[in-house]
Every structure is written in C-alpha cells, then in structure tokens.
Amino acid sequence: xxxxxxxxxxxxxxxxxxIASYSKYIQTSRRTDAYSxxxxxxxIMERCYQQTYNYSYAYNGNSGNTSGVNCTQIxxxxxxxxxxxxxxAGPAGTSTSSYVITATAVGAQxxxxxxxxxxxxxxxxxGWTPTTTAAGTCWQN
Length: 141
Description:
elongated; four-stranded antiparallel sheet; 1 helix; 4 strands; Type IV pilin; alpha+beta; PilE-like; Pilin-like
C-alpha cells in the first residue's frame, strides 16, 4: 500500500510539472496569432501610405481622406481572438508619417504576462511589455 502511495505521489508531481510546461508552451504558440495579425495590419498600413501618403486613414476609418482612394481598415482583433489590435501615431509623433500597432493579449492569452503586449512600428521595430522580459523571448525569429 505504501508503495502504491509513493507511485501516486510521483505521478502527481510529474503531472503538475507537465501541465505547467504545456500551458507555457500553449501561451508561446498563441503568440503566432499576434505575429500574423500585426504583419497583416502592417501590410494594410503600407498599402494605404503608398496610395495616400497617410497612415492614419487605415486606422481611423478613412476620416478626412479626400484622396479618392479608400484604404482598407486594419483589423482590431487577431484571427483567433487571442489579441486585440490598435494603431496610433508612431515615434515621429504624427499619424500621417509614422505608426505603432499594438497587440494586447486578451482572454486565456492574458495569462501570458511575460509578453502582455507586442508592438511593431513603421520602421519594423519590434517591442513588447513588460520590458523586463529578455530580448528574443517575445519575438521569435
């Protein structure tokens, strides 16, 4: 009976380790949802800029767009809904000449506190929060 209890305890310990490791793996794999959504939105932003010389039309619903070219509006959620997306004026400070797109983890993915948000700007500079997370952890190349 004692031997059986020892085996059960060992199996329980191994299961706890395996479940934690698997959960971390799932969180990491779900980041691809953000990568693809950010990449798609970057493409939309660049196509809009190429036609209108203005990034803001792609994320503000073409408000004020008198160019005659309607820009596709960027997505606000990722394909699998693990992230919400938002674009804003970028480092240059104007919405017409630069942008930053942010993907924020929601739902089950919000437990991924190591990479709570992922960002990319018009120069393809990638960022993440919290910034204490080691470089190369959030953005897999």
